[in-house]
Amino acid sequence: SNTVKRHNHPSGRRGDAHHVQCCDGQIGVCHIGGDDRQREEHGHAVAAAALDTATEALDRARRTGERWYEAELVRLRGELLNGGSPRFPARDDVAHAAKDAFLEAHSIARRQQAPSLELRAAISLARLSRSLGRRERDRGRAVLAEAYRSLGEGHDTSDARSARALLSELD
């Protein structure tokens, strides 16, 4: 069932446009009003809640042994650590934590023989690596190229198209 919960703004202000919609346990931002600072603070609060949710899901998967989606949960955690967008680079320490999460997700996917999840983790790593210097950029490209080559089938998926475009960009 869809419910809308209204929350006070992280700064302590209350506003009609500041709310988070919770649908079947998933959090999504519906609309954020206010000035840039208010939107940024609200965005950080939502990102923190999403990161907590991803971490809890990962902990549960590992605790129960239901690890079939573990690689994607680790990758998602890396995206959330990185701010959820490759266009806005994170601080160095956070970027390196995100990089470690992408490498872990890639390793898990390889071990589980899940090529589509391996490709997704490699895409995330390669996108992030663009902002980490030449050596990391080259490493990210190499991981992505290997994951793309080993894909086998599914070269017409959106992830495969993204991988091809990113490989061209990184050449």
Would you kindly provide a written description of the structure presented here, covering whatever features stand out?
With 171 residues, the chain is mostly helical. The protein has 6 helices and 3 strands. Helix 2 runs parallel beside helix 4 (115-129), helix 4 runs parallel beside helix 6 (158-170) and helix 5 (134-149) runs antiparallel to helix 6. It starts with a strand and ends with a helix.
Q: Tell me the strand percentage band.
A: 5-15%
Described by strand count, sense and barrel closure, the largest sheet is: 3 strands, antiparallel
Query: What is the number of E strands?
Result: 3
**Shape estimate:** globular
Structural class, by secondary structure, is: mainly alpha
Distance from first to last alpha carbon: 47 Å
Uncertain segments of ≥5 residues (pLDDT<50)?
Answer: 1-32
Radius of gyration: 18 Å
Strand order of the largest sheet: 1-2-3
| Helix content percent band | 55-70%
User: Counting H and I runs of at least 4 residues, what is the number of helices?
Assistant: 6
Q: Mean of residue pLDDT? A: 78
Order of helices and strands: EEEHHHHHH
Short description:
The radius of gyration is 18 Å and the shape is globular. Helix 2 (70-81) packs parallel to helix 4 (115-129). It has helices spanning 36-64, 70-81, 92-111, 115-129, 134-149, 158-170, and strands at residues 2-6, 19-23, 26-31.
List keywords for this structure.
171 residues; mainly alpha; three-stranded antiparallel β-sheet; 6 helices; disordered N terminus
